[in-house]
Amino acid sequence: MQRLLIIGCGDIARRALPWLVRHYRVYAAVRSDSRNRELRELGVTPLRADLDKPRSLHRLAGIGNLILHFAPPQDSGLRDERTRALLAALSTGKILPRRIVYISTSGVYGDCDGAWVSEARRVRPQTARARRRADAEVRLRHFGRSRRVSVAILRAPGIYAGDRLPLARLERALPLLRDEDDIFTNHIHADDLAMIARTALARGRPGRIYNASDDSVLKMGEYFDLVADRLGLPRAPRLPRVEIEQRLSPAMLSFMGESRRMTNCRINRELGVRLKYPEVSAALSAMTEEAA
């Protein structure tokens, strides 16, 4: 049985685990021993390793034939020091992994003025967070080419699920842009992202980028309205951009400054995925039916 190492065993990894543990011997890097019992009950062998402490990573070298890298970069800087430290540690092993799948972000594209965006579009990250992700992509693809390791990168947009909806923002009645000023956003259900990641382990092409997005074509306000209507909450107020800029923090405004519509032909054609929730409206309908 092949050995799979998970770096960043959070929500997306946990959603994939029931399938993964049936097909691989699964290991997961953990920063402390607090989750050991939980992971062992899920069929996972925990390994103590901290991406912020490079010396602790050498034990990961040679462990996994396959690697799912879900860990985010650190919170500051323009380089992903965590990914760089991980790759340096993996390079010391007598056996290199055969394949790495990394979850990146659609933010590496920057603002595209609402245009349709395929994987062929050049990246133009505009935030420090997106620049760190772009750095990780470059490092991983270079590692793949130089070490003959197959690396697949999934650019994920806004991830949502029943427990990952903007309820707090709706309950606080924070304003959104009026339709004429609004931006296009992209979405993927957490279960579908987990499925795409495990599928890429088997079918991802070396050095390939994949837009891990669903079929929805929504502006941000439309998405919030869908959530509010399905859950019986008041819709968020709409304001012109000039008024929004006076009322919201820079962090919140950053999510309103990039507009794009991602194509997902490549995951359908090359990976052969069939999304459980191809549109946000379908997922929200399923959630409300389950809650009824």
What does the model show?
- With 292 residues, the protein is an alpha/beta fold.
- 38% of the residues lie in helices and 19% in strands.
- It contains eleven helices and 15 strands.
- 40% of the residues are buried.
The percentage helix is: 25-40%
Low-confidence stretches: none
Query: How large, in whole angstroms, is the Cα Rg?
Result: 20 Å
Structural class comes to: alpha/beta
**CATH level 1 name of the domain at 3-111 and 118-162 and 187-214 and 264-276:** Alpha Beta
Number of strands: 15
Mean of all residue-level pLDDT scores: 95
- Termini distance? 42 Å
CATH topology of the domain at 3-111 and 118-162 and 187-214 and 264-276: Rossmann fold
Features:
292 residues, alpha/beta, Rossmann fold, 7-stranded parallel sheet, 15 strands, globular
Fold blueprint:
Layout: E1 3-7, H1 11-23, E2 25-30, H2 36-41, E3 44-48, E4 66-69, H3 81-90, E5 99-105, E6 116-117, H4 128-147, E7 150-156, E8 158-160, H5 167-171, E9 176-177, E10 184-185, E11 187-189, H6 190-203, E12 208-211, E13 218-219, H7 220-231, E14 238-239, H8 241-247, H9 250-254, E15 261-262, H10 265-271, H11 280-291
Helix pairs in contact: 1-6, 3-4, 7-11
Task: Please give a quick description of this structure.
The chain has helices at residues 11-23, 36-41, 81-90, 128-147, 167-171, 190-203, 220-231, 241-247, 250-254, 265-271, 280-291; strands at 3-7, 25-30, 44-48, 66-69, 99-105, 116-117, 150-156, 158-160, 176-177, 184-185, 187-189, 208-211, 218-219, 238-239, 261-262. With 292 residues, the chain is α/β, with parallel strands linked by helices.
